[in-house]
Amino acid sequence: MYRYDPKDDPTDDCFRAGGNLWLVLTEEKKQLLIENTVEDMASVTENIKYRHAAHCYLADAEYGERFAKAAGLDTDKVKELSKLDHEGLVQATLAM
């Protein structure tokens, strides 16, 4: 899916648009987004949920934390995963 690691180019913020969208959503829409995403990902393996949560966290910390909590994930682990480069994230979540 990746042809390059977004963290290789610090000027390329792949998560800004998602974070900006999160910031303009009303509280009702934020809750709906979280609930729908958790429901849609119910059958997805935990490692993929952690990858998604790390990406949400990179877009906006509150977004990532709320998704993680709603999905029953460890928020501290999500924060740590968000610090990794793409390959590190893949490797860390493959072992789950």
Main beta-sheet annotation: none
Beta-strand share of residues: under 5%
The structural domain count equals: 1
Shape: globular
Q: Could you report the average pLDDT, rounded to the nearest whole number?
A: 91
Quickly count the helices.
Answer: 6
**Element order, helices and strands?**
HHHHHH
The CA-CA distance between the termini, in Å, is 20 Å
Write a compact overview of the structure shown.
With 96 residues, the chain is an all-alpha fold. The protein has helices spanning 16-24, 27-40, 46-59, 61-70, 75-82, 86-94.
Write the layout of secondary structure elements.
Layout: H1 16-24, H2 27-40, H3 46-59, H4 61-70, H5 75-82, H6 86-94
What does this structure look like?
With 96 residues, the protein is an all-alpha fold. It has one domain. Helices cover 67% and strands 0% of the residues. It has 6 helices and no strands. α3 packs antiparallel against α6.
